[in-house]
Amino acid sequence: METDGGRDRLEYTEYGTGDAWVVLLPGLLIPRRMHDHLARTLAANGAHVVTLDFLGHGRSDKPDDPFAYSVTSFARQVVALLDELGAGQAVIGGTSLGANVALEVAAIAPERVRGLIVEMPVLDNALEVAIVSFAPLLLGARVFPFAFSGLRFVTRRVPRGVVPWWIGIGLDTLDHKPGPLAAYVHGLFFGRVAPPASERRRIQAPTLVVGHPRDPLHPASDAEMVASELPNTTFVKATSILEWRRSPERLDLAATKFVLDCWRPARRTRRTAN
User: Fold this and answer.
1) CA-based, 20 to 30 A from 121: which of 87, 98, 232, 255?
2) What's the whole-model pTM score?
3) pLDDT tens track for 81-95
4) Residue 246, H or E segment
């Protein structure tokens, strides 16, 4: 898929068929295949699922321009994807950065959103930790680019087929040239990171929010805050950030039920909690 007048190439993968569209969005710098398992599970239950590499992620283009990267531009890429697929609406789901982008899609194009799956959003309560975590990444990519190029040289030579799947995802996440990496972090740092609370409260789409305890970069308080702001929310508390990666059955079931409910004619109207 191409956007921005054909200058930016974005890659996506489809699972399943039909009109019950779901778009799954990855976390910061992580390739789209992080959602392979969930996509296959949802497709097996009748959904038509698409996973997307934002600009700067996975196999999509990675320009050096900081202005190419922002949560709003990523949200526009999702809308462009729906146009490309001929999908009027979709359930938009994302993890971390992808969760913020899902909220942004609901803010800028609410008519395209059938529902939202928001796992560990990064909002007000994560600000200080995010700065401490990613400012060195920006500085290092600018000042010591040879270190990042050397790391990329090493990780690209590890065959993905001989390592566990999540280790392969981690290796792919490290596969970034220093110039585009610095531009990416710069763009996100100085751009809009999510819809403000005043806009989030106007989101009417049914939403599944998944929060994790003991995760300073994705504090449970941010997930709980979103769940309290949106008027049509189901909140699920994961046992840890690893539950959906190591023992996904419970959360897969919650996500599958949510997606199927979104695409049934009767829409949910009451808030529930698990």
Assistant:
1) 87
2) 0.90
3) 999 999 999 999 999
4) helix 243-246
